[in-house]
Design goal:
The structure holds 2 protein chains of 2 kinds. Chain A is α/β, with parallel strands linked by helices. Helix content of chain A is about 25%, strand content about 25%. Chain A has 7 helices and 17 strands. In chain A, helix 4 runs parallel beside helix 7. A 9-stranded mixed β-sheet of chain B has the order 11-10-9-12-8-1-6-7-13, with helices on both faces. A two-stranded antiparallel sheet of chain B has the order 2-5. In chain B, strands 3-4 form a two-stranded antiparallel sheet. In chain B, helix 2 crosses helix 5 and helix 3 packs across helix 4. Chain B is globular, with a radius of gyration of 21 Å. The chains are: A alpha/beta, B alpha/beta. Strand 12 of chain A pairs antiparallel with strand 11 of chain B, so a sheet runs across the interface. Bound molecules: flavin-adenine dinucleotide and adenosine monophosphate.
């Protein structure tokens, strides 16, 4: 048995999430007494030996320009062939839009049990059981995979496993890439912002900001913290902010190290998207706002007075270094 | 155009989440069931819009579940759709559910299958991709815009850091999210009409599940909030820096 980690690439660049999935895959290999490899699909402009910094000793690459866009059926064919060549039986992805489009098809193709949104290292003391969030973060489930081949997509920011840098051997795999059956006709990337699901810190605003013209206070705070920005559902629905910023049960689910909520009441559906954050700070003028029950730190006050002071105090902290 | 919309039954978003039988079963006592919001608000409404622009469109609904799924299937029929199927098996293994729906696709030959982006109870976001592999069909996940074109369809989907628009042939399975349509409320005519629409109960195929949920757990309660005075914002910064070590 061996572990195969599918490297997380965006436009030919290695993403920082590779550190987490590689150390996770290595840990599964360690506890099951086997080895782990990393599979890079498509061309990568970064030097692949950089993956050694996260502990990747064996890297496989299928360098084919037709893998630049993620087409589920093409990816499923190529990954299946790689699994066959390498003899892997535990496949690890980072849980993100790409793996959401590929991992389920791979599971059906191989008849391999899939746990999507894992948050912990598998328990192999009695079978193979993986913990994931269910009920939008309101609970966890231990899911036992009953098949020989196993697929896991790991929620970002779920595990902290120390890793040791190592030498990396890069092997090129010769696998035919089927022609794509689809065409990408337009790409619209959001420039210059920290993607919400990858941000260490997220600053989020609710109806308490009163209107889109007031977002400056929030954006200033986000800027000094190099944070991603989010909002509650009514804010997205009113088009004060783009809909991809809406977090919650029916929006994006995030787990940053720090979540700062400004003028958000903390409805149960909102909490469902943010309750896996490590630290939650709430600023709300209503001491009875339900969000305070889910918070680690809070200020009862008018956000328009508090937030600029907070931004200034953080700037000062940075200045003191 | 023949469209299938997948409908799953989920606890209302305000439901208290609890477990029984030594944390091995979801406690259904007092739970209000709803149509999974992504299925109701986006997948179903987009299918209805396609029928409104081309009345020759046929919409089928499918839900894989027990008899207690029928009220939410009727509610979905009240919003729109011509007939519904309930495939009679209760399973939380996505592959088992996907096999049932793929078998229905094989018989009925749908051009399009719409699912929600994920079920808010399983948080799997996997069913559509599995059906696509089994049927087989194109799979486009996390769609925010959808239109039918002479070649098949054009779909805008969420990708890392933005969106991309792709064009592909049919049949296609589309997982739908916000942006693709606007939530609707069923009207009286729809509710009355839904009572007489066919709801077929289909026996399930035997499938060996690939996964089993063995245990549930509730997250540990928060220790309680530490409040800082609004006059002393610097103290919050100190706590975040020195105590929580997050800035
Ligand atoms: C099926 C369903 C799904 C849903 N999914 C989601 C979801 O995914 N995400 C989501 O967010 N919501 C969701 N909701 C909506 C949710 O129930 C709440 O209505 C919503 O989260 C409230 O948004 P809010 O906190 O911005 O607004 P409000 O509830 O109006 O709260 C505004 C807050 O701002 C505070 N405030 C006002 N002025 C100031 C000031 N000057 N300074 C400081 N504080 C101030 C107020 O005290 C108040 O607490 C869903 C609802 C349903 C029914
Ligand atoms: N039991 C079911 N019956 C019909 N459709 C389902 C069922 N479970 C999930 N789905 C559909 O698949 C989507 C994704 O579900 P999941 O993969 O469980 O997150 C849902 O939004 C539904 O559209």
């Amino acid at each position: 048995m061996s572990v195969l980690i599918i490297a997380d690439l965006q436009e030919g660049h290695l993403k920082k999430s590779n550190a987490e999935i590689i150390s996770y895959g290595n840990e599964i290999a360690r506890i099951s007494g086997t080895s782990a490899g990393v599979l890079v699909l498509g061309n990568c402009t970064d030097n692949l030996s950089a993956l050694g910094a996260y502990g990747a000793s064996q890297v496989y690459q299928v360098a084919d320009a037709n893998l630049q866009a993620v087409n589920p059926s093409v990816y499923v064919s190529v990954i299946s062939a790689a699994i066959e060549q390498i003899g892997a039986d535990v496949i690890v992805f980072s849980n993100n839009p790409s793996s959401k489009s590929v991992a389920p098809g791979l599971s059906a193709r191989l008849g391999a049990g899939l746990v999507s949104g894992a948050i912990a290292v598998p328990d192999i003391s009695n079978g193979f059981s993986v913990r994931k969030t269910v009920f939008s973060g309101k609970a966890f489930a231990d899911v036992s995979i009953n098949t020989d081949k196993k697929i896991i997509t790991l929620n970002p920011n779920s595990v902290t496993i120390p890793f040791v840098a190592t030498e990396t051997v890069v092997t090129s795999l010769s696998i035919p890439v089927p022609a794509s059956t689809r065409k990408v006709t337009a790409v619209n990337k959001i420039e210059g912002e920290v993607p919400l699901t990858e941000a260490d810190i997220v600053v989020s605003g609710g109806r308490g900001l009163k209107g889109p013209e007031n977002w400056g206070v929030l954006l200033d705070l986000a800027k000094v913290l190099k944070a991603g920005t989010a909002c509650s559902r009514p804010v997205g629905d009113a088009h004060w902010r783009p809909h991809h910023e809406h977090v919650g049960q029916t929006g994006v689910q995030i787990a940053p190290n720090l979540y700062i909520a400004l003028g958000i009441s903390g409805a149960i559906q909102h909490l469902a998207g943010v309750n896996r954050s490590k630290v939650i700070v709430v600023i709300n003028k209503d001491p009875e706002a339900p969000f305070f029950k889910a918070a680690d730190y809070g200020i009862v006050g008018d956000l328009f007075e508090v937030v600029p002071q907070l931004t200034a105090a953080i700037q000062q902290l940075h200045a003191e270094g | 155009m023949k469209i299938l919309v997948c409908i799953s039954k989920t606890p209302d978003t305000t439901s208290r989440i609890a477990f029984t039988e030594n944390n091995t079963r979801f406690d259904e006592a007092g739970v209000q069931w709803i149509i999974n919001p992504y299925d109701e608000w986006y997948a179903l409404v987009r299918a209805i819009e396609l029928k409104e622009s081309d009345p020759a469109t046929i919409i089928h609904l499918v839900s894989v579940g027990g008899a207690d799924s029928e009220p939410i299937i009727r509610k979905a029929l009240a919003l729109g759709g011509d007939e519904a199927f309930r495939i009679d098996i209760v399973s939380n293994d996505s592959y088992t559910v996907a096999k049932q729906i793929a078998a229905l696709c094989d018989r009925e030959k749908y051009d399009l299958v719409f699912t929600g982006k994920e079920a808010i109870d399983s948080n799997n976001a996997s069913l559509g991709g599995m059906i696509a592999e089994l049927y087989p069909a194109e799979y486009v996940s996390l769609a925010t815009q959808f239109s039918v074109t002479p070649e098949g369809c054009s779909v805008t989907r969420e990708v890392e850091g933005g969106e991309e628009t792709i064009s592909c042939g049919l049949p296609a399975i589309i997982s739908c999210q916000k942006g693709i349509a606007e939530q609707r409320i069923p009207n009286m005519r729809g509710i009355m009409g839904a009572r007489t629409k066919p709801l077929h109960v289909v026996a399930a195929e035997a499938v060996t599940p690939l996964t089993t949920i063995t245990r549930y757990e509730l997250p540990a309660a928060k220790a309680g909030v530490k409040l800082v005075s609004a006059d002393n914002v610097a103290e919050l910064v100190r706590l975040l820096h020195e105590e929580a070590k997050v800035i």
